[in-house]
């Protein structure tokens, strides 16, 4: 299905309304979830949200199980070294048992090697799983946005959408690729180390862990602070991305320079960047001093343990062997790294929850225009289009944009829709390819309600050529093939010839391999229009909608484009939305809209003889013609 209006992509994309032609109304009904609805990031994560995050990893359960086994094995092997060290200090060296000493030292080396190998394998598998989850999230959000109605995009800045996919999902990379595994690994290491410490000496273990609850409380507070700051930071990044997207596009650059606002835009961007700097610094420093205190206490713990052991010995308490004390301190130092990492992981998870909330917002957006459960598929479309008592409103709070529209366009027939700006002309054309669904009545294709058709049938049946042509930053051939990916070079050339653009393409240095530039700015308006027509010819739809396809062109270019349109319209059901009435004189039926209602209908001759609104529009065109030409 071709796009229409301001972003006419090709014959298989959905159009975007041109706000210059009709006032655009946004859809504010209850089914819409605002992409920036306020969140309270200081609240703890809800169990349902945590369960939803865990479900993302469900397809990779087998690989995660292998990671768990590697983590457990690595933790068990790592805590064996202090026990080997105790035997070296208490038995092998004092008794001069060289053979035992060699075996114990070899065991410590093997433990280190085994732990490292398990760590590398664990990192490989967990990173692979994490990246697959990232891929699933990106694809899911993109697919969801592809299904959203046009009203969503008319009220959402492009940069905001891009930021959700790039920055928010990108910000979760550490969480889904390494944090989850780090959590399991460090938790296992902490538990195994504490068990080993208890086996060595329970009294020293109690002394070592007395401050642990305080550390946990501190890390939770730091996590909540960073989560709140992260939410603000991501919104600021989205705002900055939107500014870049709008001001550094070709249109934005042209507007900024011709209006002399380049310096102003730079200052505005600098202000946005300055706010982001502040948030980045706050995010980085949030709780940093408190975490530093934890690190200092953990690092000082060996000295405290030596001091406590010395006091115990001097007071006549149970003797702690040198080997046990050194092994215990070794375990305690081994506990330091995973314990601090575990606390930091908790902070990272709290921070990432803010990003998950923003992503889930987009995944939860309701899609109003959906394919029916049992859609109708038409193998061959004749092309009869009917509007049966059609009414349409952009939202529940505004009045009807269209009211009581009844029109029949026979297969192969032509309809022209004219009227003043804001009368509902383009809105009427949006209903045929289901860019919007009717509020009242129905629109049918070959007698079937378009809401009952499958999307593939509808996209193959309806093609649109609009005033604003969107071209990708790709070659001419690639832009044409977007309508028909399997088109041969001969088919592309035939479509270009029919659209009166082949000779111009052939004269270019790279021919059909010429890059069209951002939004096709290497081509003139008439050339882009004829490329759009060639693209639609390649698609070969039985129903064609021409949405003011020549209204912005000069007289000479309009004549060339009109020849291409005539070739395209031959044998197709054609609905023309027209501003210049010179292009609709030969239509089988002309409908004049005013205020969303049909004011007049008939052929050109009948309406001239009636001397009503159509005749008045013709007189207006005649007065404007000298100025336009």
Automatic annotation (TrEMBL):
InterPro entries tied to this protein: AAA+_ATPase, ABC1_TM_dom, ABC1_TM_sf, ABC_transporter-like_ATP-bd, ABC_transporter-like_CS, P-loop_NTPase, Type_1_exporter
Chain segments carrying region Disordered: 1-44
Taxonomic superkingdom: Bacteria
Transmembrane segments: 64-85, 100-125, 174-196, 202-219, 291-309
Record domain ABC transporter: where: 385-620
Single biological process term from Gene Ontology: oligopeptide export from mitochondrion
Family of the protein in this entry: Belongs to the ABC transporter superfamily. Siderophore-Fe(3+) uptake transporter (SIUT) (TC 3.A.1.21) family.
Name assigned to this protein: ATP-binding cassette, subfamily B
Organism: Streptomyces wuyuanensis
């Amino acid at each position: 299905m071709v796009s229409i209006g301001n972003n006419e992509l090709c014959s298989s994309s959905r159009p975007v309304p041109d706000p210059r032609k009709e006032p655009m109304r946004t859809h504010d009904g209850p089914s819409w979830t605002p992409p920036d609805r306020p969140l309270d990031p200081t609240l703890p994560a809800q169990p349902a949200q945590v369960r939803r995050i865990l479900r993302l990893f469900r397809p990779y359960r087998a690989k995660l199980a292998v990671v768990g086994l590697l983590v457990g094995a690595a933790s068990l092997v790592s805590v064996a070294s202090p026990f080997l060290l105790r035997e070296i200090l208490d038995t092998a060296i004092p008794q001069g048992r060289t053979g035992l000493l060699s075996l114990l030292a070899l065991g410590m080396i093997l433990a280190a090697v085994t732990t490292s190998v398990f760590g590398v394998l664990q990192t490989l598998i967990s990173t692979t799983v994490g990246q697959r989850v990232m891929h699933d999230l990106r694809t899911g959000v993109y697919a969801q946005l592809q299904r959203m109605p046009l009203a969503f995009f008319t009220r959402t800045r492009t940069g905001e959408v891009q930021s959700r996919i790039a920055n928010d999902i990108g910000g979760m990379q550490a969480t889904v690729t390494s944090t989850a595994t780090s959590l399991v690994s460090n938790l296992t290491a902490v538990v195994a180390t504490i068990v080993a410490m208890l086996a060595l000496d329970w009294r020293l273990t109690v002394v070592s862990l007395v401050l642990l609850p305080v550390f946990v409380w501190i890390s939770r507070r730091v996590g909540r602070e960073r989560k709140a700051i992260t939410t603000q930071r991501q919104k600021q990044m989205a705002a900055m991305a939107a500014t870049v997207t709008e001001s550094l596009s070709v249109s934005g650059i042209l507007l900024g320079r011709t209006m002399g606002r380049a310096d102003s835009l730079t200052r505005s961007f600098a202000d946005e960047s300055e706010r982001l700097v502040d948030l980045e610094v706050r995010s980085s420093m949030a709780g940093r001093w408190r975490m530093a205190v934890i690190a200092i206490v953990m690092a000082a713990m060996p000295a405290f343990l030596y001091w406590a052991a010395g006091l115990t010995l001097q007071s006549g308490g149970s003797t702690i062997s040198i080997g046990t004390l050194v092994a215990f301190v070794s375990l305690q130092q081994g506990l330091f790294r995973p314990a601090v990492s575990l606390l930091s992981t908790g902070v990272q998870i709290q921070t990432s929850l803010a990003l998950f909330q923003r992503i889930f917002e987009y995944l939860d957006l309701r899609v109003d225009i959906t394919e029916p459960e049992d859609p109708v598929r038409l193998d061959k479309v004749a092309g009869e289009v009917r509007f049966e008592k059609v009414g349409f409103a952009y939202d529940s709070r505004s009045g009807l944009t269209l009211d009581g529209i009844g029109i029949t366009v026979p297969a192969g027939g032509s309809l022209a829709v004219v009227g003043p700006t804001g009368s509902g002309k383009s809105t009427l054309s949006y209903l045929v390819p289901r860019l919007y669904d009717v509020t009242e009545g129905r629109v049918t294709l070959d007698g079937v309600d378009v809401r009952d058709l499958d999307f593939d049938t509808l996209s193959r049946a309806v093609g649109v050529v609009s005033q604003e042509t969107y071209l990708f930053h790709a070659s001419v051939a690639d832009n044409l093939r977007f309508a028909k990916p399997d088109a041969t070079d001969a088919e592309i050339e035939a479509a270009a010839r029919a659209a009166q653009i082949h000779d111009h393409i052939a004269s270019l240095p790279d021919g059909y391999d010429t890059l069209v530039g951002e939004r096709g700015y290497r081509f003139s308006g008439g050339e882009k229009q004829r490329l759009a027509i060639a693209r639609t010819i390649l698609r070969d739809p039985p129903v064609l909608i021409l949405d003011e396809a020549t209204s912005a062109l000069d007289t000479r270019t309009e004549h060339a484009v009109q020849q291409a349109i005539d070739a395209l319209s031959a044998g197709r059901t054609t609905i023309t939305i027209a501003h210049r009435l010179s292009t609709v004189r030969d239509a089988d039926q002309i409908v004049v809209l005013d205020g969303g209602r049909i004011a007049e209908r008939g052929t050109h001759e009948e309406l001239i003889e009636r001397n009503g609104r159509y005749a008045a529009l013709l007189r207006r065109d005649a007065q404007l013609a000298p100025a336009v030409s």
